[in-house]
Amino acid sequence: MAAAAGHGLLAAQGGQMNDTTTSPRRFGAANALRRAALPLAVLAALAACADKAPPVATTDVAGSKLVAQTSPEIRRIEALGRTLYTLDIATARATDVALAEGADLRAPDMRGRVTDVSGDNVLVRFVRQRGDRFEAAYDVTFAGDGQAPIMTRPADPSLTPDQSAQLAAGQLAAASLIPLCKLPYSPVAFRDPGTGDWRVYLLAASADPQVKVYAGHQRVLVSGDGSRIVPSAPLSRNCLAPRLEAPAGHTPEAFLMTETLSPTPTEAHVFASLLYGLPILVVTAAEKKHWIVDQGRIWGAS
Q1: What CA–CA distances, in Å, run from 126 to 155, 157, 165, 176, 189?
Q2: Which of the residues 59, 60, 182, 209 could staple to 27 if both were Cys, CB 3.0 to 4.6 A apart?
């Protein structure tokens, strides 16, 4: 499915829902988790970048000379992908912290997690069910000042209305999942900046560090109250999760793939570029247009 060349391209043509304790670590996320503290201040920095022009006007990857794209739609896609990446890393890190502190995330009454972003801070709440009520069992808080994350057992476990709606949206999206990849899936949810509806991403992941998931993630839009799925275009048509292992002495310059559903790269490409740290050369099928997605940014022909 994939081939590697010295300083060249890695090319590819082209489950099940898991609880919060059994999702395999994606390779890029695992690297981020090894850092002394999760840089959640990056969330604010990345969000701020969404309102600024890309700092580099042109890029040259694998012989493709392209210019930075600054249209409102491209900048929106970049911001969505960066938010998705940051929250995915936060939930993975929070799971490790909670387990290290003795949290029983496999208890039969556990029902998942929600994230709450306030300024530079991110709160990950692990939710359990007590009767017909959902409440926070464990909180992991990341401060924007770079301090080590802290797990607490909340004195008031009540979920806010927004957190309850997010939980409902995630459960509704998970119930609708028809996996494209034969891999575990885990959800990340946040409100759409434009509509206020929930954007729920069901992310496929592999425990094999050489397996990179470039397509197969799913996006489900859910109403703001978490009660109904909103019609939307699919994010992926099939699974693209090749095992990429370059031969000794060969350094891949970019990953090459075809995008068949969207006329531009999507937030999934932005997410993967950040997760795996490898530029992605995207060829959109309709117009055979070439794009580069690298470090959360999108470049294309002028």
Answers
A1: 14, 10, 15, 22, 14
A2: 209
